[in-house]
Design goal:
Elements (H helix, E strand, L loop, with lengths): L7 H16 L4 E7 L15 E7 L4 H6 L2 H4 L4 E5 L5 E6 L4 E7 L1 H4 L8 E5 L19 H21 L2 H18 L1 H4 L16 H4 L1 H6 L3
Parallel strand pairs: 2-5
Antiparallel strand pairs: 1-2, 1-6, 3-4, 4-5
Helix pairs in contact: 5-6
Length: 216
């Protein structure tokens, strides 16, 4: 399986085209880009996808979810998958991959999102930006270490029983998640931005020495 690489200029142009398509609809209120297409554009590269929120009037949300003609106006779509109650994952014919949600202004006020940038906003809409996730604090180091060790122990037991898939989950996923939570205690974070929704993102850039230990 291979993926298409897409020039960042095409990604940004696609966002503008989607914003223009929304601007032609009176019940559309705004378009916001997130992550590397939002305020973290220094991370935007040929492997990036487009994360965005479309904001529409409350009585129009169902129509925007049921028909994606507003996205087809920006280019032909070859695959779509509704992965949440609010949105889709979608692939354009030219390789632009999107993950998006559709919100009303009231929903946007409580939606979580990081590094949001307004691509288009209807004059007078005054839309709120999504709320960045708050760091409620990680459990203490002793808990993380204990969980990692016991996940390894349980995983080895599952392996011995012949439950190899379950063993792989405990050892290579659950235990590794706990080790990732300890990265900041092992090495100071580098300048690369973290992802509040996914601890494994950009670990190699944030913790290069720690990342070299992970295969062990």
């Amino acid at each position: 399986m291979s993926i298409a690489t897409v020039p960042p200029t095409l990604l940004l142009a696609r966002l503008e085209a989607i914003g223009a398509a929304l601007a032609r609809r009176p019940d559309a209120l705004g378009l916001m880009a997130l992550g590397s297409a939002g305020l973290e554009r220094d991370r935007l590269d040929a492997y990036s996808d487009l994360d965005f929120y479309a904001v529409v009037a409350a009585d129009a949300k169902a129509r925007y979810l049921d028909s994606l003609d507003w996205l087809e106006a920006a280019g032909p779509i070859v695959y779509r998958f509704r992965n949440t109650v609010d949105g889709y994952k979608l692939l354009y014919a030219d390789g632009v991959f999107c993950e998006f949600a559709i919100f009303t202004p009231q929903e946007l006020a409580t939606a979580l999102g990081s590094a949001a940038r307004i691509i288009w906003e209807r004059p007078g809409a005054a839309l709120p930006l999504p709320t960045p996730p708050t760091n409620t604090g990680q459990p203490e180091v002793a808990w993380q270490v204990g969980e990692a060790l016991t996940n390894l122990y349980v995983g080895l037991g599952r392996f011995g029983r012949g439950e190899r898939l379950s063993a792989a989950r405990f050892i290579q996923h659950h235990a590794v998640d706990r080790v990732l939570a300890l990265a900041g205690h092992i090495e100071p974070a580098g300048p690369a931005s973290g992802d509040p929704f996914s601890a494994e993102r950009r670990v190699e850039q944030r913790y290069p020495e720690f990342a070299q230990l992970l295969p062990q």
